[in-house]
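Same chain as my last thread, 102 residues:
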Amino acid sequence: MKKGLVLYFFYTLLIVSLVLFYLRQHSQVIEMGYAISDLKNNKLKLEDEKKRLEMERSNFSSLSRVEGIARERGMVFPQEMRVITIKEKKNERSKEMVPGEN
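reply #2:
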């Protein structure tokens, strides 16, 4: 009788342990599912923000926008194009060009 009671207690404990182990694993799977879902949502938000920032960057760097800002600040295209080249000797320091000289 005592041996049967010990086996009954052992099997009951084993079954309860297995059920608890299963429930713990199942709850971890559910938690991971929620975490994955949150990360996917975060990824989508970051991708949207990246697209918005790329659009903003292209808008800020567009030539027409830069030209418009330059005109607003009084800048104009040069009337005459002049290119001055300076040849430098190896042992001589470079000379600084002053606008209007030449």
